[in-house]
Design brief:
The chain is mainly alpha-helical and 278 residues long. The protein is built from 13 helices and no strands. Helix 8 runs antiparallel to helix 9 and helix 12 packs antiparallel against helix 13. The longest helix is centred in the C-terminal third of the chain and has 31 residues. The chain is globular and about 55 Å long. It comes from Streptomyces sodiiphilus.
C-alpha cells in the first residue's frame, strides 16, 4: 500500500529494532499456509474454519472463552452476556470480509458498521454505530487490567480522524505495521462505549487482507493473540499506548507473532483435512 503523502508516519516504525525480523518471520509462516497442497483444492474451507476460530478467539479476549466445539454447535447466542459476546464476534468476523473496498476509502464507515453489527441489540440503541460522546462511559471486558483509561471523547475523536486519514493516505510500511497501529490505536482510544476489542481485532484482520498479506484470510491473527494469553496481550498493548519506540516495536512484534500462530493453526487444519480427520 503506497502512501499518497510525501510524509509517511508508519515507515519509521517499520525500521524499529526487531520489526523487520517480525515481518519476515510472519511472512514465512503465512507462505507456508498458502503453499500447502490442501489450499489449492479446499481454500474456501480453510477460510471458513479460520473465520470461526478467529471469532472464537476474539470473543475469548473479550471475556467469553468458549471451547471451539461449543461455538460450532450453538445456534442461540442471546441467552447471557458471554453468549452475546460470542455471537457478536461471529457477526463482526463475517461482516469484516464484506467491507474491504469501503475500508480503503472510508475507514470510519467501516468502524461504525462493525460496531453496529457487534453492539446492535446489546448496547443502548442511541450509542450503537457511533463514537462515544463526552461523559459517556466505556465498558470493555478483557481490558480491565489495562491501566490506561480511555481518553476523553474529544481527544479520541481527533485521534480517530487522524487514524482514518492515515488509512486513506496509505503507507509504504508492511501490512503488519499498519495493522498493528490500527489495532493498537483503536484499543487505546476505545472510541465506542462497548465492543472496542471486537471492532479493533476485526479492523486488524481487514488491514491484513486488504494489504495483500493474507488475501484469503487464512491466518487468523485473533487466534495468535488468544494463544499468547490475555495478560501478554494487555502488556504488549501497554507498550504501544506508551508511545515509546521500544514499546511500539514490541507491540508490532507481538502482532506478528499472533499472525504466525494463526497461520500455524490453519496449517494444522490443512493437515487434518489432508488426513481426512476434519
Amino acid at each position: 500500500m503506497k502512501a499518497n503523502s510525501p510524509t509517511d508516519p508508519l515507515t519509521p516504525l517499520a525500521r524499529l529494532p526487531g520489526v523487520g525480523a517480525a515481518v519476515d518471520s510472519m511472512r514465512t509462516a503465512v507462505d507456508r499456509v498458502y503453499g500447502h497442497r490442501v489450499m489449492r483444492r479446499r481454500s474456501s474451507e480453510i477460510t471458513a474454519e479460520a473465520a470461526l476460530r478467529g471469532a472464537r478467539a476474539s470473543a475469548a479476549l473479550s471475556g467469553a472463552d468458549w471451547a471451539l466445539e461449543e461455538v460450532r454447535r450453538r445456534s442461540d447466542f442471546g441467552t447471557d452476556q458471554q453468549a452475546r459476546t460470542v455471537g457478536a464476534a461471529l457477526r463482526v468476523t463475517a461482516e469484516a470480509g464484506q467491507l474491504l473496498d469501503i475500508w480503503r476509502t472510508s475507514p470510519m464507515r467501516v468502524l461504525a458498521r462493525l460496531h453496529l453489527v457487534a453492539a446492535g441489540g446489546i448496547a443502548p440503541e442511541e450509542t450503537v454505530g457511533r463514537p462515544r460522546l463526552a461523559g459517556e462511559p466505556v465498558t470493555e471486558p478483557g481490558l480491565e487490567s489495562f491501566g490506561r483509561p480511555a481518553p476523553p471523547a474529544d481527544e479520541a475523536a481527533a485521534r480517530l480522524d487522524a487514524l482514518s486519514r492515515l488509512v486513506i493516505d496509505g503507507s509504504q510500511a508492511p501490512a503488519l505495521v499498519t495493522a498493528a497501529v490500527v489495532h493498537g490505536e483503536l484499543l487505546t482510544l476505545r472510541p465506542f462505549g462497548t465492543h472496542n476489542g471486537l471492532v479493533a481485532r476485526a479492523a486488524q484482520r481487514i488491514v491484513l487482507i486488504a494489504g495483500g498479506l493474507d488475501p484469503k484470510s487464512v491466518a487468523p491473527v485473533e487466534v495468535g493473540h488468544a494463544e499468547q494469553g490475555l495478560d501478554t496481550y494487555v502488556q504488549a498493548l501497554d507498550g504501544y499506548a506508551s508511545g515509546r519506540p521500544g514499546g511500539m516495536a514490541a507491540w508490532i512484534a507481538h502482532c506478528g507473532r499472533s499472525v504466525e500462530l494463526g497461520a500455524r493453526e490453519s496449517v494444522a487444519v490443512c493437515e487434518a483435512l489432508q488426513r481426512g480427520a476434519a
